[in-house]
Amino acid sequence: KSEPQTKPKALNFALCFARGSYVTIFDAEDIPAPGQLRAALEVFRDGPDNLACVQAHLGFYNGRQNWLTRQFTLEYAGLFHVQLPILSRLGLPIMLGGTSNHFRADILRKIGGWDPYNVTEDADLGIRLERLGYQCAIVDSCTGEEANSRLGNWIRQRSRWLKGWMQTYAVHMRHPAALFRDMGLRKFIAFQAMTAGMIISALTHPFFLAYLLHGLWSGQVLDVIDYTGGSTILTLAGFNLVMGYVSAGLLAARGSRRSKTEYLMADVLFIPVYWLLISLASYKALWQFFSRRFYWEKTEHGLGG
After folding, report:
1. What is the 3 state secondary structure string of the chain?
2. Fewest CB within 10 A of the end CB: N or C in the chain?
3. Residue 193 Cα distances to 198, 226, 234, 271, angstroms
4. Phi, psi of 195 (to 5 degrees)
5. Which residues have C-beta within 8 Å of that of residue 188, sequence separation ≥ 6?
6. CA dist., res. 172 & res. 292, Å (int)
7. What is the pLDDT of residues 9-60, one digit of tens each?
8. 0.70 exceeded by the pTM?
9. How many Å from the N-terminal Cα to the C-terminal Cα in the chain?
10. Residue 71 has pLDDT above 70, yes or no
11. What's the confidence (pLDDT) of residue 227?
């Protein structure tokens, strides 16, 4: 067996045999909405010549299965029904999802396909398309996927994603000046927020939460007038953390309404607990980034209820 043993390597191999003008990526467990291919084709026909990829919404058909799948569904609702459409409208870079991507085959070949060593090849490809002057758009069609319902399986999947985002950031930031020239100030800042910001927030979240809880327990967080500055810093840290929870909750709630999963509204309250699981996965990702950077940790499917 040759290395690396990754999905993007297999995609590059398959691309050699593609004969059509467009290439679509679906995962084996996907259930795309009827008419999605036609809808994506219409977006291409109505779009500019440099439109390289059309990304569909992603959701889960087993979102009600347990607490973990409900949180996962909320997360995707906010991402694919709110965040990505906003980024697309603003002309900012889009970190593509790993499935339901519809590509122009000629552009895909021109840029060299996927990075076979990146374990989130979708995120890297979205940034590369942006740097090379191409656009991505969102199509109003949803693909049902299987949400991870077991914690260990979820950790394996999420740690791979986080490791891939670390890879993507490291690759594109090898030459920051070149990245800045390719993207411009606005898109460069957006890239930092979507990659470095996401990674750093996952790694630091438990410490901010512990700091805040300690301050609440000791009463320091209520004492904002402190000439040492300690309580002021604690209060600001707590405010930022709470605003992060509120922002994530509002994003999830809005996405839930748009994706017709309003039954998940009560689960918004447990987003801070879900974030702790993301932090746990981020430390596994950080360890593997230095020890097993190109290892593709497979996700077990067929567990959905």
Report:
1. CCCCCCHHHHHHHHHCCCCCCEEEECCCCCEECCCHHHHHHHHHHHCCCCEEEEEEEEEECCCCCCHHHHHHHHHHHHHHHHHHHHHHHCCCCCCCCCCCEEEEHHHHHHCCCCCCCCCCHHHHHHHHHHHCCCEEEEEEEEEEECCCCCHHHHHHHHHHHHHHHHHHHHHHCCCHHHHHHHHHHHHHHHHHHHHHHHHHHHHHHHHHHHHHHHHHHHCHHHCCCCCCCHHHHHHHHHHHHHHHHHHHHHHHHHHHHHCCCHHHHHHHHHHHHHHHHHHHHHHHHHHHHHHCCCCCCCCCCCCCC
2. N
3. 7, 32, 23, 20
4. -110, -70
5. 179, 180
6. 20
7. 999 999 999 999 999 999 999 999 999 999 999 999 999 999 999 999 999 9
8. yes
9. 35
10. yes
11. 46
Do residues 121 and 6 lie in contact, with contact meaning Cβ atoms separated by under 8 Å?
yes
Q: Quick one: average pLDDT of 222-234?
A: 55
**What residue spans define the domains of the chain?**
7-291
Domain at 7-291: CATH code? 3.90.550
AA letter at 200: I
β-bridge pairing 22-25 and 101-104: antiparallel
What single letter denotes the amino acid at residue 284?
A: K
Peptide bond into 32 cis (omega under 30): no
Mean pLDDT of the chain: 93
Q: What does the pLDDT look like over 166-221, one tens digit per residue?
A: 999 999 999 999 999 999 999 999 999 999 999 999 999 999 898 888 777 776 65
Q: Which pLDDT belongs to residue 142?
A: 97
Distance CA 303, CA 246 (A): 32
What is the C-alpha to C-alpha distance for residues 194 and 94, in angstroms, rounded to an integer?
9
